[in-house]
Amino acid sequence: MTIRLLIVDDQELIRTGFRLFLQTQNDLEVAGEAADGHEALTQAAVLRPDVVLMDIRMPRMDGIEATSRLTTAGSSPRVLVLTTYDLDEYVFGALRAGASGFLLKDASRERLLEAIRVVHAGEALLSPSITRRLIEDYATRAEPLRPPSRLLAGLTPREREILLLVARGLSNPEIAARLVVTEATVKSHVGSVFAKLHLRDRAQAVVFAYENGFVLPGGSG
């Protein structure tokens, strides 16, 4: 299967560099490029990419706004945010907007390829450092939030347990080992949690869990 990509960055040299490298991969196709968020929306509607590599700081419309609009549209692509800026406001803004991953531009080529393929497969690329910063951010809340009772009622005890472990950054194999079940069983539970809570992927699950008090800083939940 070929993964169709849209590269969004206001710097032409960066777009060209990404395109030249990514086109060397047999399973990747650069379908198009865009210089800002407005152009990204137009190009995405025409080209229907599978994954969008999205810069954040751009003229006219930034990457966070463009990501939000892309991920709320029908048949929306996965968005992998690529930025020079490792700042909390961008990390949180991108994840809340619906991005499936967040990667700094100085990441290795191998890491970039891995991120594209992971995001395309429906997973999320959340490094332990980003998960830790989410925890630290919500630790500053004076009064932890509590999730609506209807949401809790909709999840089985096992699904709540799965959500807690996903929110703490564990992968499916790690969850399977922790709960002594098969990876297929974990994948089924994760899919059920996402469906019931209307979540796209792990990135949204992590943000949802902390914002709604399913898991609290310090490991409780």
TrEMBL record:
Known SUPFAM superfamilies for this protein?
Answer: C-terminal effector domain of the bipartite response regulators, CheY-like
UniProt-listed Gene3D superfamilies: 3.40.50.2300
Can you tell which superkingdom this protein's organism belongs to? Bacteria
Q: Which GO terms describe its biological process?
A: phosphorelay signal transduction system; regulation of DNA-templated transcription
Modification 4-aspartylphosphate occurs at: 55
- Ranges for domain Response regulatory come to 4-120
Q: Which InterPro entries match?
A: CheY-like_superfamily (IPR011006), NreC/VraR/RcsB-like_REC (IPR058245), Sig_transdc_resp-reg_C-effctor (IPR016032), Sig_transdc_resp-reg_receiver (IPR001789), Tscrpt_reg_LuxR_C (IPR000792), WalR-like (IPR039420)
Question: Which organism's genome codes for this protein?
Answer: Streptomyces aurantiacus
Can you give the residue ranges of the HTH luxR-type domain? 148-213
Q: Name one GO molecular function term.
A: DNA binding
Keyword DNA-binding recorded = yes
Q: What is this protein called?
A: DNA-binding response regulator
> PROSITE patterns this protein is in?
HTH_LUXR_1, HTH_LUXR_2, RESPONSE_REGULATORY
The entry's keywords: DNA-binding, Phosphoprotein, Transcription, Transcription regulation
Q: Does the keyword Ribosomal protein apply?
A: no
